[in-house]
Design a protein that fits this description.
The complex is a heterodimer. By secondary structure, chain A is an all-alpha fold. Chain A is built from 19 helices and no strands. Chain A starts with 5 loop residues before the first helix and ends in a 13-residue tail after the last helix. Helix content of chain B is 48%, strand content 8%. Classes of the chains: A mainly alpha, B alpha/beta. Chains A and B meet through helix 8, helix 17 and helix 19 of A and helix 1 and helix 8 of B.
């Protein structure tokens, strides 16, 4: 079920009403049922895939906690392998067999591995990683194994964050299923406001800019450099608003029910370095890779060379997590190179800035850092959005063409559409910065009733009129 | 069950009141947008508004899709025949919707002396979607338009009855802004001349891209409902005593080899016309079809091509006797 669907507009209030009307003892079971219904709205049979992951990791975690030595390690390894095998079968099998066949044909051999032809279950990578983090934390002794299967199943299936995160750690979310959540008008209000902000990002910005991006990236040969450049910047905001909009809706919906989810974004396009960007973007995944891949590999502890190797490996895996295709691997590696190069050049850059007389807080230095970071991230998004590496390279080469005619609009995204999208992006960035200095929520809340309600109603009407309500999927659902 | 606290009850009541307030505000905005769009004087809204106000005093009306819209210059038709003319072509419209536009025109305006209905090769097909449905939103209380739109989009009832819903889901071009602008006294520049939209464009690469995709040719869609709609249009004119000519206006000759069932489609249309007693003028063999400079893509004449075509058509109309008592000559 999509958040931006009429079904969800009926589902969510009904779930909230029933949830708070039920006795405490029945609420978790009800949330589990509601989450299963939410997930089965996509492809019902795939609930069995999730059920398998839940069953394996629930049983394994209990055994990991109860045993020691080799048995414990065997349960841990078995659980990790089983969970990853499911992910591999559905997401990576075709990619690896195609790569293998390509290499084998290069060597003159023509193998024909069987095709599985499986459709990727929505959000598989998200709930797989959430379930994995639980098993790892139990194995590390930082989390007690859950004894109630319904609570564990609800932790993995919790509908607000089921298909696109945030990827929660058990220490934060699992414990909340043991607590009582009473209906709280303040949480209702703040949760709904957060959801509305998420819908604004998704419907008004992401889906509006998608009109331009889909045209230009759908047929790059028919579009000029200016059109592709605008589409690339538009995609930077499309993916940000699509994904962070989903996270806002997830955080808001969970808040209405009394749950607190982690923040997944922190104004990433205000970053002045690529390292800072990755501390602000998809925080739940970045910290997952940091804690479970980068740090166990040795992180940045031993030598600059090992740090670079670990960074590249972690980012390449992060790319592969996003999609089973080489363009995602290149995207990940490119970002790894950015961050590694940032580390390696930090002292030299600092000396240069000091020699030029600019301190860390100087506006010119910040502007240079911000614009360089934004440009580098936009260039990497070309590989993310393109359908293949050759496609991405073709787009990059076309970026330099056609600047004599400054045509920036496309067939589906005329001047009016583009103006609305650009205005909404400006509004987003202004509101983000303003909100940091003076939170907008309390400011609106301090108004008298009629102007306050008029402002809220006006914003909802604007959201209705300026949004694109085609029921488009969130980009990250495919991962 | 945990008992609800009085504070919770008050909060829920307040929330319900806020929702009611928002719905009321949405109703007001919806009414304002509709009022604004119904007052627009330019473009398609202006043309439709004049039609609904009975301000179309045309003796020749042209109906059809974008090919009608950009091919027939009413000024030239009027000048040649002495009969005031009006173009009712609608971008991306199918025969059912063209019929609905004609019915709506006849409901509010005096009957014309001649109807020219432009034929496309897709005239016998029913599309899966209405093109740019936002342009019809202020007119959903017109029975003919509403019935046809609802036949294609069953959810059109919600566009009509739920405040702002139609603009949210069926107005991707955001025509509502024109309504708001009109209320503020802002009118867009006129792009139509008596409903005609000349496009002074040069040849684009649209056709080449299409030809690459359909290199082996394609079957032009047709279905029984589409055929019935064209038959209904013929019947409407016959029963109302309106002289009707079906015209297949020029398309670029290069597209013909790709249309595998072109002859069958045109023969079916010719049969329909013959059974109804309406002439079918096929301009496929016009010399205009051979010159790329007359078109901006394979289906659409540019402004120069439209000028040349309308003159050719006007001469034929005059020769066939479709004139006022004192016809004038072409400029």
């Amino acid at each position: 079920m999509l958040f931006n669907s009429l079904e969800f507009a009926v589902f969510f209030p009904a779930v909230c009403a029933i949830y708070f009307a039920l006795p405490y003892a029945r609420r978790t079971s009800f949330l589990l049922l509601a989450s299963a219904v939410f997930y089965m709205a996509f492809v019902p049979a795939y609930i069995l895939v999730l059920g398998t992951t839940i069953g394996v990791d629930f049983a394994a975690a209990k055994r990991i906690e109860a045993t020691r030595g080799g048995t414990r390690t065997a349960w841990f390894a078995g659980s990790i392998v089983a969970t990853c095998l499911i992910l591999f079968a559905f997401k990576y099998y075709a990619f690896f067999t195609q790569t293998f066949v390509g290499l084998a044909e290069f060597a003159g051999w023509r193998p024909s591995p069987p095709a599985l032809d499986l459709i990727l279950p929505v959000g598989l990578s998200f709930h797989t990683f959430q379930s994995l983090s639980y098993v790892i934390e139990v194995h590390r002794g930082r989390q007690r194994a859950e004894q109630d299967w319904r609570i564990f199943a609800t932790y993995v299936l919790f509908f607000p964050q089921l298909v696109a995160g945030p990827i929660e750690r058990p220490q934060n979310l699992l414990a909340q299923f043991h607590a009582r959540h009473d209906f709280d008008p303040a949480l209702l209000k703040s949760g709904l406001k957060r959801m509305a902000w998420g819908f604004f990002k998704k419907l008004v910005i992401a889906d509006r800019l998608a009109l331009h991006v889909n045209d230009a990236y759908g047929d790059p040969a028919a579009h000029s450099g200016p059109q592709l450049a605008v589409a690339t910047v538009a995609f930077a905001y499309q993916i940000y608003c699509d994904f962070s909009g989903y996270s806002d809706i997830a955080v808001g919906a969970a808040r209405v029910l009394g749950f607190r989810l982690m923040e997944n974004f922190d104004a990433p396009y205000t970053a002045t370095s690529t390292g800072e960007f990755w501390r602000r973007w998809h925080i739940s995944l970045s910290t997952w890779f940091r804690d479970y891949i980068y740090v166990p590999l040795g992180g940045g502890r031993d030598s600059p060379w090992r740090r670079t190797r670990n960074l590249l490996l972690t980012f390449a895996l992060s790319g592969l997590w996003h999609g089973a295709a080489w363009n995602f691997v290149v995207w990940g590696l490119l970002n790894g190179i950015y961050v590694a190069a940032g580390h390696a050049s930090r002292n030299g850059r600092e000396r240069l800035w000091q020699r030029a007389g600019f301190g860390p807080e100087d506006l010119a230095r910040k502007a240079a850092g911000w614009s360089t970071t934004f440009l580098l991230i936009c260039l990497s998004w070309v590989f993310f959005r393109a359908t293949s590496v050759p496609d991405a390279l073709a787009i990059l080469s076309r970026l330099a063409t056609g600047w004599s005619e400054l045509q920036v609009t496309t067939a589906s995204c005329g001047p009016r559409q583009l103006a609305i999208g650009a205005t909404a992006v400006l509004l987003l960035e202004t509101a983000t910065r303003f909100n940091r200095q003076r939170p907008i929520g309390p400011l609106l809340g301090s108004l008298p009733l009629l102007p306050r309600w008029s402002a809220y109603a006006g914003l909802l009407i604007l959201l209705t009129l300026a949004g694109v309500h085609g029921g488009s999927r969130f980009i990250y659902f495919q991962f | 069950m945990p008992p609800p606290s009085p504070a919770s009850g008050r909060a829920l009541l307040r929330f319900a009141l806020f929702l009611a307030f928002t719905v009321l505000a949405a109703l007001l905005v919806h009414a304002g947008i509709r009022l604004g769009l119904r007052r627009v004087e330019t473009g398609f809204f202006g043309a439709t508004n004049r039609m609904l106000e009975g301000r179309s005093a045309a003796s020749i009306i042209v109906t059809g899709s974008s090919r009608a819209l950009v091919h027939y210059d009413p000024r030239l038709l009027a000048s040649a025949t002495g009969l005031p003319a009006l173009n009712l072509g609608r971008n991306g419209s199918h025969t059912g919707l063209q019929l609905a536009v004609l019915r709506t025109h006849l409901r509010y305006n005096s009957a014309p002396r001649l109807v020219i209905h432009n034929i496309d090769l897709h005239s016998l097909a029913t599309p899966a979607e209405i093109h740019d449905p936002g342009q019809y939103l202020p007119y959903l209380d017109e029975p003919a338009l509403y019935d046809e739109i609802r036949a294609i989009h069953p959810s059109a009832w919600a566009w009509r009855h739920l405040p702002l819903y139609g603009h949210a889901v069926a107005d991707p071009r955001m025509h509502w802004i024109d309504g708001v602008a009109r209320l503020a006294g802002i009118e867009r520049t006129e792009t139509l001349v008596d409903g005609f939209q000349p496009r002074a464009w040069s040849w684009t690469s649209d056709f080449e891209r299409f030809a690459r995709r359909a290199a082996g040719g394609y079957q032009v869609a047709r279905d029984d409902r589409g055929r019935d709609q064209l038959a209904a249009l013929l019947q409407l004119c016959r029963e109302a005593g309106l002289p009707l000519i079906l015209v297949f206006s020029p398309e670029h000759a290069a597209v013909r080899p790709l249309q595998l069932n072109r002859a069958a489609i045109l023969a079916e249309i010719a049969d329909l016309a013959a059974s109804s007693g309406a002439p079918f003028w096929d301009f496929s063999e016009s010399p205009l079809c051979l010159e790329r400079s007359n078109f901006y893509n394979s289906q659409h004449l540019n402004a120069d091509g439209a000028n040349a075509f309308t003159r050719e058509l006007a001469r034929r109309l005059v020769a066939a006797g479709y004139t006022a008592q004192r016809p004038t000559s072409l400029p």
